[in-house]
Design goal:
The chain has 4 helices and no strands. By secondary structure, the protein is mainly α. Helix 1 packs across helix 2 and helix 2 runs antiparallel to helix 3. The mean pLDDT is 90.
């Protein structure tokens, strides 16, 4: 597979599943950079995957419930 074929496949993926293609690009950039900047690209790629599967609202509602879950697990310490 040459570079043109890879670019054409990525373009067709972006046409049918734009957030998955965005996640792949962000993960690739994260692999190419170093340090804490890479973590930002990985996190953004993860959010793009959540968006592609429609799980963003579920994820944010879970994050809102985490403090109450911790409080109930610790017994109101």
């Amino acid at each position: 597979m040459d570079v043109n074929d890879a670019i054409n496949q990525l373009q067709s993926l972006a046409g049918s599943h734009p957030y998955i293609a965005l996640a792949l690009i962000l993960f690739l950039i994260g692999a190419l950079v170093r340090g804490k900047v890479a973590l930002i690209f990985y996190a953004l790629g993860g959010l793009a995957l959540l968006k592609s599967f429609g799980l963003v609202d579920t994820f944010f509602s879970f994050l809102k419930e985490v403090p109450s879950l911790i409080e109930s697990a610790l017994g109101g310490v």
